[in-house]
Design goal:
There is one protein chain. The protein has two helices and 34 strands. With about 450 residues, the chain is mainly β. The protein has a domain of about 70 residues: Type 1 dockerin domain (Orthogonal Bundle), CATH 1.10.1330. A four-stranded antiparallel beta sheet has the order 3-34-33-32, with no helix packed on it. Strands 4-5-6-7 form a four-stranded antiparallel beta sheet, with no helix packed on it. The longest helix has 9 residues. The protein is globular. The protein starts with 6 loop residues before the first strand and ends with a helix.
């Protein structure tokens, strides 16, 4: 994941530290206590922000009590949001001013009936209802800047977008019908799809509501928009295979990534194609009907990503917050989820092999990946009851997750000197060789302070 080279000496030995697989520390997400419970109620979690906050709701499974939205902070603090006349609620997005857009069953006493609705919630005021619909309301994507997109916020429109100011708007096009929206970037550009002349077409909406249809690779064939980069570059598919559209060339032919017949989709894009930093930019997706993964560096040189050993019936990309960090999830033949982490140095690794404090899992259950952020953290649930955790990626030399390399970490390495990690990734095993020794000491010293 992160490559560190350090040379030093311990006695007569010369040490070289190479790239190391990531290590993850599980932190339980303990949400608010639901009024229906004298203890802690179960929690649903929905998304993870760049600063480590988690949005979710506490519930007890009874209509009479509903669910309570909350935000969990990395230091363990929890902020509860008032739900007013809503029964069951879920967070859709967090706004820059700390308010939350929620959706759920709105049951005002004056009418005596319930309907699906969106609203702005806060910790100290009743929700302000924004829109109502007869269908369920779902969020498909959101940005750290406060934009969100989803389905079902109003009758007559399948696609909606909310702004950082808390305004819900409905996305449609004059020449199409059946609009759906898949993703949004930090500037509010959204990508989705519509039926135009009874043909499936991808498109990109601008922040002002204008839109551009995506040109197909071959004239008269279908397109689909699935993700949008920070500069407006779009990825998706055209004529049955993965493709992408440069920001300045949406109306010219799509750029295919794989041949026709591969049943492939470009589902995620990471990095900024117009201003690529040291990590560059990557496109990720699936092929062979969702049974294999691929990546394309800078929109070319498409390569398949080999899966770890195991029997899997399908695999998907969950998130790609950085060009060097992608979160995927496979499913076994008994539908057990298996989260996996990809980096250029390490390839695709099972998440469970990277956890330094693994949870005890019931039989036939496992970790389920929900979201990831650019800091490398992963939001997931564990077991059949879906207990939520944040998996924090540990920095080189950091044993206890305090983001500092000091005497505590040195002492931890020395206390386990010469020991094997015993089949579990040890927090002190920085280089992943299953032995705590001189190379791990070198990493502590190279990152001291």
């Amino acid at each position: 994941m992160l490559c560190i080279t350090a040379s030093g000496s311990l006695g007569a030995a010369t040490l070289t530290v190479h790239a190391t697989p990531p290590r993850y520390l599980l932190q339980p997400v303990v949400g608010s206590v639901h009024p229906c419970s004298s203890g802690q109620a179960p929690w649903h979690v929905h998304f993870l922000l760049a600063d480590g906050r988690v949005a979710g709701e506490s519930y007890c499974g009874q209509v009479a009590y509903g669910s309570e939205p909350f935000v969990w902070y990395p230091d363990g603090a929890v902020v509860e949001y008032l739900r007013g006349d809503f029964d069951f609620t879920q967070p859709l997005a967090l706004l820059p001013d700390g308010r939350m857009i929620i959706a759920g069953d709105w049951c005002p006493p004056v009418t005596g009936t319930c309907t699906s609705a969106t609203a702005i919630a806060s910790p100290n005021a009743a929700p302000i209802v924004l829109s109502a619909a007869s269908t369920a309301i779902l969020a498909y994507d959101r940005s750290d800047s406060g934009w969100a997109v989803g389905f079902g916020a109003a009758d007559g429109s399948n696609a909606w977008r909310s702004t950082p100011a808390g305004v819900v708007e409905f996305l449609g096009i004059t020449e199409g019908w059946g609009e759906s929206v898949e993703a949004v970037n930090e500037s509010g550009q959204a990508v989705g799809n519509s039926y135009v002349n009874n043909q499936y077409r991808g498109l990109r909406w601008e922040a002002d509501g204008s839109y551009t249809l995506l040109a197909p690779a071959e004239l008269g064939t279908t397109t689909a928009g699935l993700d949008v980069a920070i500069d407006g570059t779009v990825v998706g598919g055209s004529n049955g295979r993965a493709a992408w559209w440069p920001n300045s060339a949406l109306t010219t032919a799509a750029v295919p990534l794989l041949p026709i017949g591969t049943n492939s989709w470009a589902t995620h894009i990471a990095g900024n194609p117009s201003s690529a930093g040291p990590l560059g930019w990557e496109i990720f997706g699936t092929l062979q009907s969702g049974t294999r993964l691929f990546h394309a560096t800078s929109g070319q040189a498409t390569q398949e990503i080999p899966l770890p050993a195991g029997s899997f019936i399908g695999v998907e990309v969950i998130d790609a917050p950085r060009a060097d960090f992608m979160l995927a999830q496979a499913h076994t033949d008994i539908y057990t989820p298996v989260p996996m982490v990809w980096s250029p140095d390490d390839g695709l690794l099972r998440f469970e092999s990277l956890v330094v404090n693994p949870a005890t899992l019931p039989p036939f259950s496992g970790y389920r990946a929900i979201d990831a952020n650019a800091a490398g953290s992963i939001l997931l649930t564990i077991g059949f009851d879906g207990q939520p955790y944040v998996a924090k990626v540990l920095a080189p030399g950091d044993v206890n997750g305090d983001d500092s390399v000091n005497g505590v970490d040195l002492g931890a390495v020395l206390s386990r000197w010469g020991q094997s990690s015993g089949g579990i990734r040890a927090a002190e095993d920085f280089d992943g060789d299953s032995l705590i020794g001189a190379s791990d000491l070198a990493i502590v010293l190279a990152n001291w302070g």
